[in-house]
Each structure stands twice: as structure tokens, then as C-alpha cells.
Specification:
The structure holds two protein chains of two kinds. Chain A is mostly beta strands. In chain A, 0% of the residues lie in helices and 49% in strands. In chain A, the strands form two sheets. Chain A has a five-stranded mixed sheet with strand order 1-9-8-3-4, with no helix packed on it. In chain A, strands 2-7-6-5 form a four-stranded antiparallel sheet, with no helix packed on it. Classes of the chains: A mainly beta, B mainly beta.
Chain lengths: 110, 116
């Protein structure tokens, strides 16, 4: 299975934009890039998913370059409540499972 | 409210005493799955089900059983729990295997199991 690599941790301040980059050099043609958020002792929550170029929803943007070997999750104007672990996953089209790595611990301070 | 409900939230049991963790979803999702989460190991898939009466092993199925007799329910059964099954367990569901486009999987709130 193609793996993803992302920073172990990031720190930010309220109101700033946070960009978390994920590397996936061996991404397959039918893989989608998906991001989840997890708070302590809660189940992961779907944030955004994309295949190429840029995807935006009400909470985040996902930037994917043409070669798809990396992706960047962008969180605009973070708040304290955005402190969580963020996971970058590759989901194979028609696949049956999510393969989670260790994620990026984002800490937002005042 | 659309959700995945797991019960119980917390459970302490003794080695060898059979237990069942229930999972129910109210979204008419076809796909359901169980994961366990351990420090340093992330979330690992235990079993999954593509539809009623269709189940298959994930990455760490040893010591677990599942059944899918109804679309909404997907219980996780530990026939003879052991201390190495102490973990945080999550059930997840999705409209289809990969997660419907831009929808993803819905996870339950988790069950923290301790086997002594």
C-alpha cells in the first residue's frame, strides 16, 4: 500500500492559516487523497477529499499538484478548537479500508 | 441525527470472559468496519463488511469475530479476551467501500476496552 509522510507536529496561533503537507510519492492512479481530524478519545472525522488540483469546502482547502506526489491541507484562520491530530490518507477507488499513519498533531495557542 | 453508535463507551473485563461491543448506524450505509487504536500504532482495521452477510478480515483480525445480519448493526465479538486486546475501538460506516465522493467515513465515539 502506498504510504504517506507528514510532519509529526505543528504549532500555530489563533487566526493564522495552517498548511499541513503530506508526501505520497507512490500514489496510484486510482488513489484519492483524504484528510481526517481526530480529537482525543473521539473517532476520526472526515475533513476533505480530492484527486487533483484544488478542492475547497466550508472548513478547509486541499491543494494537489499535477504530479500528485504530495498534497497540502490548508486550514484558514485556526482557532483553539482546531487543536487535534490530522491524518492524510490514500483511499483506493473501490477499496475497503482506510490506512492511517501517525498523523500530525496540530496545537493552536492564543 | 446521522450517527454511528457504539456501546459501551468504557468496559473493563477479565481475561477469557466473552464480550460483545455493539455498533449501529442510522444512515443506511452498506459498508461498516472496526478499527482499534493503540499508541504509536495508529488505527488498524480489524474486520469490515461490504453488506449484509458479507464480512472479511482486515489487518488485525486475530481474536475477534464479527457478524452482519442486519444492515444497520455490526457487532464486534471477543470470544476470549486477552490483555493484548486492551485498546480503543472504533466502528465506522460509509455509503460504499471507498467512501462516497467527498463524504468519507463516519466513525463512532469509540469504546475503551481494558482486559485484566
Amino acid at each position: 500500500l502506498a504510504k504517506t509522510t507528514q510532519p509529526i507536529s505543528m504549532d500555530s496561533y489563533e487566526g493564522q492559516e495552517v498548511n499541513i503537507t503530506c508526501s505520497h510519492n507512490n500514489i496510484a492512479t486510482n488513489d484519492y487523497i483524504t484528510w481526517y481530524q481526530q480529537f482525543p478519545s473521539q473517532g476520526p472525522r472526515f475533513i476533505i477529499q480530492g484527486y487533483k488540483t484544488k478542492v475547497t469546502n466550508e472548513v478547509a482547502s486541499l491543494f494537489i499538484p499535477a504530479d500528485r506526489k504530495s498534497s497540502t491541507l490548508s486550514l484558514p484562520r485556526v482557532s483553539l478548537s482546531d487543536t487535534a491530530v490530522y491524518y492524510c490518507l490514500l483511499v483506493t477507488g473501490g477499496g475497503n479500508k482506510l490506512t492511517f499513519g501517525t498523523g500530525t498533531q496540530l496545537k493552536v495557542e492564543l | 441525527e446521522a450517527q454511528v453508535t457504539q456501546n459501551p463507551r468504557y468496559l473493563i473485563t477479565v481475561t477469557g470472559k466473552k464480550l460483545t461491543v455493539t455498533c449501529s448506524q442510522n444512515m443506511n450505509h452498506e459498508y461498516m468496519s472496526w478499527y482499534r487504536q493503540d499508541p504509536g500504532l495508529g488505527l488498524r482495521q480489524i474486520y469490515y463488511s461490504m453488506n449484509v452477510e458479507v464480512t472479511d478480515k482486515g489487518d488485525v483480525p486475530e481474536g475477534y469475530k464479527v457478524s452482519r445480519k442486519e444492515k444497520r448493526n455490526f457487532p464486534l465479538i471477543l470470544e476470549s479476551p486477552s490483555p493484548n486486546q486492551t485498546s480503543l475501538y472504533f466502528c465506522a460506516s460509509s455509503p460504499e467501500g471507498q467512501g462516497a465522493w467527498n463524504y468519507g467515513y463516519t466513525f463512532g465515539s469509540g469504546t475503551r476496552l481494558t482486559v485484566v
